[in-house]
Amino acid sequence: MRNAWRDMSKLEKAIVAIVEVFEEYAGTDEQKTQLSNAELGQLIKAQITSPEFKDKVDPDNIKDVMEELDKNHDGEVNFREFSQCIAGLAKAYYIKKHGKEKCRGKGRGCQDK
Amino acid sequence: MRNAWRDMSKLEKAIVAIVEVFEEYAGTDEQKTQLSNAELGQLIKAQITSPEFKDKVDPDNIKDVMEELDKNHDGEVNFREFSQCIAGLAKAYYIKKHGKEKCRGKGRGCQDK
């Protein structure tokens, strides 16, 4: 795949960054496409550092995080499971900023922060 | 919320970027927390530009994209629906690079879905 980072949009760069972070940590043992317990711990300790995200993922309790993410119970986190976790973190960050979605449809509203 | 961009990790910056892109395009009409059909079209046209992503989302057929994303059928795309779309795009990008997850290891965890 050609590297076209420079031409990518902000959204595309964000997606590529998420993939790269997964690759970096998943690649430290033989199972290059999965995060082991230890790899997940390293990823979370290094990458979830801001208070905005830390309360969603507890770096001191990787076992629980693993159990939540490992939907197919194979003891590893694959990229599909990881991307769902990222979507969850993004949603939590968004809700922190904007509040839970309430009204929709007509009217102004919906902008409670 | 304090702006601590500089202190954020690569992963956290990526998540914030995804939220910011949504906010930018969702904020152009009165429904600031939802993407209308027109806003979704603008977002996709401007942000999905690389061949790596374009074949997953067709900028010339926003109506179909909207139908696929708008899980609650309210005619708008909220952040939850958008974040699921991003997770899907990330997964597709990952599969393009690494291939589909296959069975590996010792027979455990070969539950490719």
Automatic annotation (TrEMBL), chains A, B:
Classification via CDD domains: S-100
Quick one: a GO cellular component term?
Answer: extracellular space
What Pfam families would the database entry show?
A: EF-hand_1, S_100
Occurrences of domain EF-hand (ranges): 57-92
**Which GO MF terms does the UniProt record name?**
calcium ion binding; calcium-dependent protein binding; transition metal ion binding
Look up the domain of life of the source: Eukaryota
Protein name per the record: S100 calcium binding protein W
